[in-house]
């Protein structure tokens, strides 16, 4: 069976970018025969940027409820919280010892922090925690521990998957063929979903549209999407339009073509935003209802997560670490 694995960091409220880039494609591919799916909440990763315990807890609940509301079947798929699997940080250390420091120096998120510091005349690593630097190794452990074949993610994560392959390959070279090298899966229809300001929709830019914002809030947020100042009747460009790209991510080919025509015909921005709101709301409204019902039962969500992790440890994570420990020369726990 092909193993498909993906995770979301529990540092905020799930947004349309997470849905379009990760949740929707991952659940769509779950329908195929001969696949085994792993969906998880990356709460260790959340600690890198978020020092707010209440927020991590809240986000964990929200992201779990989101997966479930979007149709994840916990009987047929693995669904778990990263920090419930202590074998993941254990494997992180084994991989740390084969990971090239030079490769980690080039990781986008770390490099961006260094570049910012340089621009401001600070020391390269001023204010950078080692968690940010090690982030790709932890992520490689998430993927390699379950020998995932495919990892559906948004484009921003491609480099991380490449690094996971690199660390896995080095480990295999030193200790024998233990790891499958994962392949990245990108939904070509949706490169990177833009946020309200036209940059990539991201918690760190504060430009997100929460996936399950109440209807009124969704409408208000969409009204705030940045557009140019062309008046109704003037031809609008689809190229580079966040509004258009958001619409495209939620519409069929035919609907998208009709929307492009409306742009050419000079649709007013207010009307275009209204169409976008209706398109998104049509897809999201039934899921929102389920989400709200789930959020009212946090104890049930907690039980589902614990059960998933316990079964996954017993069948996969624990035996894998027994093998890996003896492969590298640590005490044999079997
Ligand atoms: P995170 O939490 O930032 O995002 C979760 C998923 O959503 C995708 N995504 C987007 N896709 C399209 N457009 C956007 N604007 C957008 N914003 C976010 C991300 O690409 C990602 O697929 N490091 C990961 C979490 C992680 C993980 C893993 C993923 C930890 N371990 C192992 C896969 C496998 C992250 O922070 O994603």
UniProtKB/TrEMBL annotation:
Transmembrane segments: none annotated. A motif ('KMSKS' region) lies at residues 200-204. ATP binds at residues 9-11, 17-18, 154-156, 193, 200-204. L-tryptophan binds at residue 142. One of its GO terms (molecular function) is ATP binding. It is found in: Cytoplasm. It catalyses: tRNA(Trp) + L-tryptophan + ATP = L-tryptophyl-tRNA(Trp) + AMP + diphosphate + H(+). Its EC number is 6.1.1.2. The keyword Nucleotide-binding applies. GO terms for cellular component: cytosol. A motif ('HIGH' region) lies at residues 10-18. Keywords: Aminoacyl-tRNA synthetase, ATP-binding, Cytoplasm, Ligase, Nucleotide-binding, Protein biosynthesis. Catalyzes the attachment of tryptophan to tRNA(Trp). Belongs to the class-I aminoacyl-tRNA synthetase family. Homodimer. This is Tryptophan--tRNA ligase. The chain holds residues 3 to 336 of 439 of the full protein.
């Amino acid at each position: 069976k092909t193993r498909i694995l993906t995770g979301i960091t529990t540092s905020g409220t799930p947004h349309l970018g997470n849905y379009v880039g990760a949740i929707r494609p991952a659940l769509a591919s779950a329908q195929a025969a001969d696949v085994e799916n792993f969906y998880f909440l990356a709460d260790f990763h959340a600690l890198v940027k978020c020092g707010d315990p209440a927020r991590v807890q809240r986000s964990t609940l929200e992201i779990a409820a989101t997966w479930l509301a979007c149709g994840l079947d916990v009987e047929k798929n693995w669904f778990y919280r990263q920090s419930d699997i202590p074998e993941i940080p254990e494997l992180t250390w084994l991989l740390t010892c084969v990971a090239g420091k030079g490769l980690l120096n080039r990781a986008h998120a770390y490099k961006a922090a260094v570049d910012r510091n340089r621009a401001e005349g600070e020391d390269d690593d001023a204010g950078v925690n080692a968690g940010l630097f090690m982030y790709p190794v932890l992520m490689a452990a998430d993927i390699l521990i379950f020998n995932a074949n495919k990892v559906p993610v948004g484009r921003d994560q491609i480099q991380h998957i490449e690094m996971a392959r690199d660390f896995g390959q080095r480990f295999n070279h030193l200790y024998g063929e233990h790891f499958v090298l994962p392949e990245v899966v990108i939904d070509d229809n949706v490169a990177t979903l833009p946020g309200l300001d036209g940059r990539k929709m991201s918690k760190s830019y504060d430009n997100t549209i929460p996936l399950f914002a109440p209807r009124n809030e969704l409408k208000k947020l969409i009204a705030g999407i940045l557009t140019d100042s062309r008046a109704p009747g003037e031809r609008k460009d689809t190229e580079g339009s966040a509004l258009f790209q958001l619409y495209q991510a939620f519409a069929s080919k035919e609907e998208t073509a009709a929307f492009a025509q409306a742009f050419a015909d000079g649709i007013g921005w207010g009307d275009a935003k209204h169409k976008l709101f209706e398109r998104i709301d049509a897809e999201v409204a039934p899921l929102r209802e389920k989400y709200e019902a789930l959020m009212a039962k946090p104890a049930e969500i907690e039980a589902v997560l614990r059960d998933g992790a316990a079964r996954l440890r017993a069948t996969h994570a624990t035996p894998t670490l027994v093998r890996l420990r003896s492969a590298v020369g640590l005490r044999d726990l079997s």
